[in-house]
TrEMBL record:
<keyword id="KW-0560">Oxidoreductase</keyword>
<feature type="binding site">
    <location>
        <position position="156"/>
    </location>
    <ligand>
        <name>Mn(2+)</name>
    </ligand>
</feature>
<keyword id="KW-0479">Metal-binding</keyword>
<feature type="domain" description="Manganese/iron superoxide dismutase C-terminal">
    <location>
        <begin position="90"/>
        <end position="188"/>
    </location>
</feature>
<dbReference type="Pfam" id="PF00081">
    <property type="entry name" value="Sod_Fe_N"/>
</dbReference>
<protein>
    <recommendedName>
        <fullName>Superoxide dismutase</fullName>
        <ecNumber>1.15.1.1</ecNumber>
    </recommendedName>
</protein>
<feature type="binding site">
    <location>
        <position position="160"/>
    </location>
    <ligand>
        <name>Mn(2+)</name>
    </ligand>
</feature>
<dbReference type="InterPro" id="IPR036324">
    <property type="entry name" value="Mn/Fe_SOD_N_sf"/>
</dbReference>
<comment type="similarity">
    <text>Belongs to the iron/manganese superoxide dismutase family.</text>
</comment>
<feature type="binding site">
    <location>
        <position position="74"/>
    </location>
    <ligand>
        <name>Mn(2+)</name>
    </ligand>
</feature>
<dbReference type="GO" id="GO:0046872">
    <property type="term" value="F:metal ion binding"/>
</dbReference>
<dbReference type="InterPro" id="IPR001189">
    <property type="entry name" value="Mn/Fe_SOD"/>
</dbReference>
<comment type="function">
    <text>Destroys radicals which are normally produced within the cells and which are toxic to biological systems.</text>
</comment>
<feature type="domain" description="Manganese/iron superoxide dismutase N-terminal">
    <location>
        <begin position="4"/>
        <end position="81"/>
    </location>
</feature>
<dbReference type="InterPro" id="IPR019832">
    <property type="entry name" value="Mn/Fe_SOD_C"/>
</dbReference>
<dbReference type="GO" id="GO:0004784">
    <property type="term" value="F:superoxide dismutase activity"/>
</dbReference>
<feature type="binding site">
    <location>
        <position position="27"/>
    </location>
    <ligand>
        <name>Mn(2+)</name>
    </ligand>
</feature>
């Protein structure tokens, strides 16, 4: 059975004016869909039973692994954004402030990390196996899952993510993005990561494909 492109968790015009409908459709129906389509093409020639994206990410090689990572990363990224106001909860605010000193300091560190990308890539807030929050830059189709890091927040730093709405101004893209982050989703991911690391839970989050 072929992998399918997951629907966006909101309407294509819902993130405007930060991300326009044109940009979001191009990104979801164009870029994201192309990774799913290409992965299905690559898997067609395989006699293996259909596997989850996570399995292909963990065991695949070359283009198949890269396409699986990109498909997974994009699905996660859509969940990190919301048109509905989603303020940061107290426990997440406390965890971030404890790690970076303040929310503003975290955002500055995250932005600096994201701006350091030379080519395409992703910037992540992650929960490490050592029980620490961290910022992780992944180049190309990199994923925290391949490094045993639990993803909490993803920001797509590939050019296709911002050039339609922001031209070459990546910093403005990042500044505007803070206003549409789904902090309740980030906080749920942190709760899941902590519970899983403590052996209290091992559930597949509902957003996964
Ligand atoms: Fe993208």
């Amino acid at each position: 059975m072929a992998l399918e492109l997951p629907s966006l968790p909101y309407a294509a015009d819902a993130l405007a004016p930060v991300i326009s409908e044109r940009s979001l459709r191009m990104h979801h129906e164009g870029v994201h869909a192309s990774y799913v389509k290409r992965l299905n093409t690559l898997l067609e020639g395989s006699d293996q039973a259909p596997q989850s994206l996570e399995h292909i990410m963990a065991t695949g090689r070359g283009e198949a692994q890269a396409c699986a990572c990109q498909a997974w990363n994009h699905t996660f990224f859509w969940q990190c954004l919301t048109p509905w106001h989603s303020p940061m909860g107290q426990s997440l605010e406390h965890a971030i402030s404890e790690r970076w000193g303040s929310i503003e300091a975290f955002q500055q560190a995250f932005t600096a990390s994201a701006m350091a990308h030379f080519m395409g890539g992703w910037t992540w807030l992650v929960y490490t196996p050592q029980g620490r929050l961290d910022i992780h830059n992944a180049v190309d189709a990199g994923s925290p899952l391949l490094r045993k890091l639990s993803p909490l927040l993803a920001v797509d730093m590939w050019e296709h993510a911002w050039y339609v709405d922001f031209g070459s101004d990546r910093r403005k893209y990042l500044q505007k993005l803070w206003g549409i982050i789904n902090w309740s989703f980030v906080e749920q991911c942190l709760e899941d990561a902590v519970a899983t690391s403590q052996g209290r839970r091992n559930l597949r989050p509902s957003w996964e494909v």
